[in-house]
Specification:
heterodimer, A: 151 residues, mainly beta, OB fold (Dihydrolipoamide Acetyltransferase, E2P), six-stranded mixed beta sheet, five-stranded mixed beta sheet, 11 strands, B: alpha+beta, Alpha-Beta Plaits, 6 domains, 25 helices, 44% helix
């Protein structure tokens, strides 16, 4: 996977956020903007983790709940719940996260691969693990987060 | 890497557009001449011109294979034009040209692909062979009673001059017999020096010395090619003779780009009026480097004409992008006039001419992308207007002047919307005319006499519709040809029909829809046969006996259904009608079939006139808002007690004026919570689409509004939202999102 290698070798800026107090990261190049939670229009007959669509300045953007995607229970949205709007392959997708934390720069030395472990559910969305002074962050794969369909 | 030369990307669209329309024109002429079975002079010239233009522009794009193929056809028509040979085998001629046109078109389709250019030499050989036959049978012109002697000079510093000479000789071998050269052997070192010093003398016998000369002139590194013996002609090429010709320098507008081709346009414009014409730099058609030379030094034209110099200069001046035309020297008879013209006289009335040419051009070709943007923008304005005029902040306020102004705005917007739509409208005849070609080809191949008739081809539809209509139409016409029309005239006469079959393409618009009807007067379809076939293929979803005739007919649209026992070149792979259905549905349209055994088959396509803005009725179901396009709604009402019947399966039905309709609860259909369950609380909407009717149950009618259809994101599409009866979404005046229901899908699926 070239996407993977490039990041592990060169490092880069990562936006970190938490879901259930676990730190996750997403490469900043995919992030368009961060907005507060707003009214989501339900689209019927789609998987549960797709919460619906929202209107971002005239564009209709589907919203994925990261909690649902990781098989966790939903918690009530509060004023710190955020939607991170990603742009992947020219399409916008929003992901709902508990808290947005900060932007960190991951150095090549601090990035390592994920262990091969089939029984961990979230593993399939994680492409690298970043460890620095502030702790461990799980770097999500945009592609798999958006496109993998549950079998 | 695409096939064309790098640096030409910005010209690709133009090239494709131009070449495709030329090829269409070509097909049109061919079709006409074929039905008359004779060429008029105009038509030959036209074909010649088309091929010449394609040759030139292909060469400019670096598409040598296409350029050569066009050249071979051009040669063929050159012979026909110049020698008027008796063409015995016209069928073969048409076939050759049609195939060439198809090959060119196919190559354009894959022009941006990363594949090597297609090799057309096979077809070119056929064309050359035919051209030779034509020449063989034609009376020889007086010019070639003997051999022609030609002196070819190569450009100084040409490497491997011997090889080049050999290549050159080989290139004309096809057109000539009895070629002699001095020196006879070109590859020795001595010969090379001789060629470099004295030039290569070629003596040949040919029926068409002019085109041989042309080929020699176009050879690589050839500096000049002059005929010996033809004294006055040779003299014209002599530099001392230049004084006899009028010489002008043409400068082009700065930054007009592609100066070499513009120069070619100039040359083409005056070619017919000039008896002699030379220009420098010479190789403007194929060598892009000449553009730079022309840009800096100007383009020099030497000509002799029966018309006055002024007239020629005027023609040159009228060519687009020409900045100035300066007379350098006048031809001898006009010498005295020339003096005062050396000072730029032309520029004086240039402005007058500019106005003249611009007035002539009342058509503009626009990039489709820009039109799409315009349409999108229009959609945004419609939404923005709703946001302003039905703004929640205005509720309860009495604002007479505001309402007046808002009404005015709405009126203007809707007018503008109409105009934007009409810009994108093109007559459907373009799509229809393409079918003529298919019918013609299949007629020849299948040996079925068939006539294609049009009706209402002036009906206008959105440009994007036309583009996606081609494939479905083609499949249907092929189907009618292949399966519909009887195999032989005898069979038709036996059935009491005229011997020549008819396929009819008709189009008309009705209430926001365009209806396209493809009908034939062929065999028709047997519902029982269709059912048997469907049963064999295992695509029946309910017991055979439950199918109505109409349902049986529509089986042919299912994937994997094909009634033809044999797979032919044209249809029978079991994909045809399936593709049609999908193609039409992508446009938001519907297809239905109707057929009477022994009388023919009719396909009816309905496509919404405008793809993006619909009048919709907003309905609420629980916390969701859906939009139902108004043209599907027959009526809406509050149900009375006892109007609802429940059958043994628990399915609900409603009786309205003696008719029974199934009831679809939208909340149940989409698994929504919080919606009304008591029928008397909510509202019933009777909807109809494609002959299906049903009642939809929703909570409330929210009001009517124009909405702009926005497509779902690919992520949602991958979960099959379209298959679940959702056509798209839209943004309402208050910024909230509504989902537009695809009523025909819901009614068909439930």
């Amino acid at each position: 996977m070239s996407e993977n290698k490039g990041f592990a070798a060169e490092g880069g800026e990562v936006l970190t956020f938490t879901v259930d107090d676990v730190f996750y990261g997403i490469e900043i190049k995919y992030v368009n903007e961060i907005i507060g939670i707003e009214q989501i229009t339900v689209v019927p007959k789609v998987p549960e983790y797709i919460k619906g669509v929202i209107n971002i300045r005239g564009k209709i953007v589907p919203i994925i709940s990261v909690r649902k995607r990781f098989g966790k229970e939903e918690i009530p949205y509060d004023e710190r719940t955020c939607i991170i709007v990603l742009e992947y392959e020219e399409n916008q997708v929003g992901i709902i996260v508990d808290r947005v934390r900060e932007v960190v720069t991951a150095k090549p030395g601090s990035i390592c691969d994920t262990p091969v472990q089939k029984n961990v559910n979230t593993n399939k969305y994680i492409k690298n693990i970043i460890e620095d002074r502030s702790g461990i962050k799980l770097l999500l794969s945009c592609e798999r987060l958006i496109h993998d369909q549950e079998k | 890497m695409a096939k064309f030369e790098s640096g030409m990307e910005n010209m690709v669209d133009m090239y494709i557009y131009e070449t495709t329309s030329l090829l269409e024109q070509l097909d049109h002429i061919l079709m006409q001449t074929e039905s008359e079975n004779s060429f008029s002079e105009d038509e030959i010239n036209e074909i010649f011109r088309i091929m010449h233009t394609i040759k030139g522009s292909s060469a400019m794009m670096g598409l040598d294979n296409m350029s050569h193929l066009a050249h071979s056809v051009e040669d063929l028509f050159y012979i026909i034009r110049e020698q008027h040979p008796v063409i015995k085998d016209t069928g073969r001629l048409f076939e050759l040209v049609f195939t060439a046109s198809d090959l060119l078109r196919a190559e354009i389709d894959i022009i941006t692909d990363d594949t090597p250019p297609t090799d057309f030499s096979g077809h070119m050989d056929k064309i050359h062979a035919f051209a030779d036959e034509l020449k063989g049978g034609s009376p020889r012109t007086e010019e070639d009673n003997g051999s022609v002697k030609v002196l070819v000079r190569f450009e100084p510093d040409t490497q491997m001059i011997g090889m080049r000479a050999l290549v050159l000789i080989n290139s004309i071998r096809q057109l000539c017999s009895d070629i002699k050269t001095i020196p006879p052997e070109t590859e020795s070192e001595a010969a090379e020096t001789q060629i470099a010093a004295e030039g290569l003398k070629i003596e040949f016998v040919s029926a068409d010395p002019d085109s041989v000369m042309g080929m020699l002139k176009e050879g690589t590194c050839v500096a000049s090619c002059t005929r010996e013996g033809g004294a006055e002609k040779a003299a014209a090429h002599d530099s001392s003779a230049h004084t006899a010709l009028t010489t002008v320098r043409v400068m082009f507008e700065p930054e007009c780009k592609m100066e070499n081709l513009r120069a070619l346009m100039v040359v083409n414009n005056i070619r017919d009026d000039c008896s002699e014409l030379e220009y420098s730099p010479e190789n403007i058609e194929n060598d892009q480097n000449t553009a730079q030379v022309i840009k800096t030094d100007g383009f020099i034209i030497r000509f002799r004409s029966e018309l006055s110099d002024e007239e020629i200069l005027r023609t040159i001046g009228e060519t687009p992008s020409v900045k100035s035309v300066d007379m350098i020297s006048a031809s001898v008879p006009h010498a005295e006039k020339a003096e005062d013209r050396t000072a730029k006289t032309e520029t004086a009335d240039k402005d007058k001419k500019r106005v003249h040419t611009e007035r002539k051009q009342s058509l503009v070709s626009v990039n489709l992308q820009k039109l799409d943007q315009l349409l999108n923008m229009m959609g945004e304005i419609v939404i923005a207007e709703a946001m302003v005029t039905s703004n929640p902040d205005l509720k309860g306020l009495k604002l007479d002047n505001f309402q007046k102004a808002a009404r005015q705005l709405r009126k203007l917007n809707s007018e503008m919307q109409d105009i934007v739509m009409s810009i994108r409208m093109v007559p459907i005849s373009g799509a229809f005319n393409k079918m003529t070609r298919i019918v013609r080809d299949m007629k020849v191949k299948l040996g079925k006499e068939t006539e294609l008739v049009f009706d209402g081809e002036e009906t206008e539809v959105d440009k994007s519709v036309i583009d996606s209509l081609n494939d479905p139409l083609m499949h249907m016409v092929r189907n009618s040809m292949d399966h519909g029309i009887e195999d032989s005239a005898e069979e038709r006469i036996a059935a009491g029909k005229p011997p020549v079959g008819t396929i009819k393409l008709a189009a008309y618009s009705s209430s926001g829809e365009v209806v396209i009807v493809v009908s034939d007067d062929g065999k028709g379809m047997d519902p029982q046969k269709l059912l048997t076939k469907a049963e064999q293929n295992g695509i029946l979803t309910k017991p055979r006996t439950e199918y109505t005739d109409k349902e049986a007919m529509n089986l042919i649209m299912l994937p994997g259904f094909s009634t033809n026992e044999q797979v032919t070149e044209y249809s029978g792979r079991g994909v045809g009608m399936d593709v049609v259905k999908q193609g039409i549905e992508k446009l938001g349209g519907t297809v239905s079939v109707d057929s009477k055994l022994g009388e023919g088959t009719t396909f009816t396509i309905k496509i919404p006139l405008s793809l993006s803005i619909v009048d919709g009725m907003e309905v609420s179901v629980g916390s969701s808002i859906f939009t139902i396009p108004i043209n599907y709604i027959k009526e809406s009402f509050k149900p009375r007690e006892g109007q609802v019947i429940t059958d043994t399966d628990g399915k609900e039905m409603i009786m309205i004026r003696g008719e029974c309709y199934p009831l679809i609860r939208l909340a149940e259909l989409y698994g929504l919570e919080g919606a009304y369950t008591e029928l008397s609380d909510g509202i019933i909407i009777l909807a109809e689409a494609d002959g299906h009717s049903a009642c939809l149950f929703a909570d409330e009618l929210m009001g009517e509004q124009q909405v702009v259809i926005k497509p779902f994101s690919p992520l949602l599409l991958s979960f099959g939202v379209k298959q679940n009866g959702m056509a798209g979404c839209s943004i309402l005046g208050d910024g909230s999102i509504t989902i537009i229901l695809d009523i025909s899908n819901i009614l068909a699926e439930n």
